[in-house]
Amino acid sequence: MHDNQPRTITPDDLPKVITRYLTAHRAHDTATAVTTFTDDATVIDDGNTYQGRAAIEQWLDRSATEFTYTIHLTNAQQTNTAHYTATHHLEGNFPGGTIDLRYRFTLRDNLIEHLAIEP
């Protein structure tokens, strides 16, 4: 596999740490979700950057209550052993009502080092 060419994988082939994060995030289980990140992890969401577990925990708490929505995993890709993308379809009471978001993960030491969420 070339380092810059993503290939489609099944959701079951996503690393366990990503699956654990996605499951916890869907369940609004902030305590579990935050344990999937490195201490110095970075999350970029909606134009904002959250650095470190404490900031990520606050972001998770806020995002769990800001809107009501359903989320469905529609695609998974692997670029290399550290880079994965999980595409989700969301429907809810946020502006626009529906959106497809790509969750781009970078892993380090079996934890999430970087997560960028973007359309």
TrEMBL record:
Organism of derivation: Streptomyces nondiastaticus
SUPFAM superfamilies: NTF2-like
Organism ancestry: Bacteria, Bacillati, Actinomycetota, Actinomycetes, Kitasatosporales
Record protein name field: Nuclear transport factor 2 family protein
Domain SnoaL-like, first and last residues per copy: 18-112
